[in-house]
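Our consortium's second objective concerns turning raw sequence data into structural hypotheses that experimental partners can test. To show how far this objective has progressed, the report includes one record in full. It was chosen at random from the queue rather than selected for favorable results. The single chain below, 429 residues long, was entered without modification.
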Amino acid sequence: MTITQRLNYYFSNFNTSESRGKNMRRNTRFSMFQISFMMALLAASKAPTIESFSVQKQTGVNSIHRIVFGTAALSKADDPYAMLDAAYDKGVRRFDLARTYGMGESEKIFGEWLESRDIDRCDIDLITKGGIGMDRYGDPDRPLLTFESLSDEVDLSLDTLNVEDVDLYMFHRDDARLSVEQFVDWINKILETGKIKRWGVSNWSFDRFKAAHQYASKKGLVPPSANSPQYSLAAPVCDVWPSTQSISQPHHEKQIQWYAKNGIELICWEVLAKGFMAKEDLWTEDEVDYTSFGKATERGTEQWRVQRIQKAYCNPENYRRRNLAIKLAKQSRLNLAQVAMLYPLTKGQHISVIFGSSKAHHIDDMVALQHLNIDETAMALFNRPVEERRKNSPFIPQFLSDRGANNIQPFRFRHANSKAATVSMRADS
């Protein structure tokens, strides 16, 4: 109820009372008016104000354990060892790796760094992923995984990292050709060797994850304790990369709650949406060529990469969210990347974020997040569904073409006097 509505409500009550008692004296009516007016102001003062739109400081609100250093581009850094030194010196203790990162180079560099530094292995938390050979793009026709090839991959990762075990081993992609029972049975056999302490998956759908969790629990086996999906303030409207999964859209909220209820960690990648939520002027609305989204490009090229990123992230709702994040960042004396990283961290204590960096001061920005949180008012504004549609955009999102395996759905909003409506980015015809 707005302030005007509140005042009207109290004034109508006052008029009703006046008509019922014609003998009411002027001073009594004036007193009632004063009381009603004060009550209205008091009620209005409890409503959210602009001061509520903020980032709150609270020491240790986000454990440093939830801020994970990503190594996907570690092999491309000018001095990768210096970057790892900087991360460790600034308090980062958790590192995300994968067999395919840099085609094996990231694990190799990290293993050499760890062996050359006087670091207690128990002082760091290692995550690595595998189970897809050296498939870089999530090819559904890659060689089929077997227990033997999985075991070999685990051993190769441990040898390359120069460690006897890893804290978390994750299947890097799902494979619908294999049953969840096979994945669960195989990884539990490897758990028994002590080479991995716990296991999880990356880019698995909610249904497949839930099925694996239920099977393991029913059979008395160790269930998966983590999933690694894309999660960002910039919600993709189609698969960002082949065979990946996202939980960024509003309809994923119940899934996020299920993970929390069952003690499942969500280790989120591409939180900055490949720079869309880090650089204020990257891919502005007027410079994105939406007509190029349907053009065929060669897989793995820079054109292919940019096309997939823009198709997923460059849409009206995400521009609205970015503009709001920019305002919040300036008001809170932070930068856009910090606000974007805080968004999933604020969503729940079971959510961790992966960040990669080639500059030391970026690490400072990320470490500072352990003492910050976005308030409820700002979070609510970020999640407000879009109320506008883009005209002249020929790109039909995956949720409209019904070709995606990601269960992506359109954003929904409500008009003041109508039922729920669906936002379409289909070109006007």
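The partners drew two points from this record. The chain has 14 helices and twelve strands. Confidence is low (pLDDT under 50) at residues 1-11, 14-30, 40-50, 386-429. Both points have been shared with the crystallography group to help prioritize constructs.
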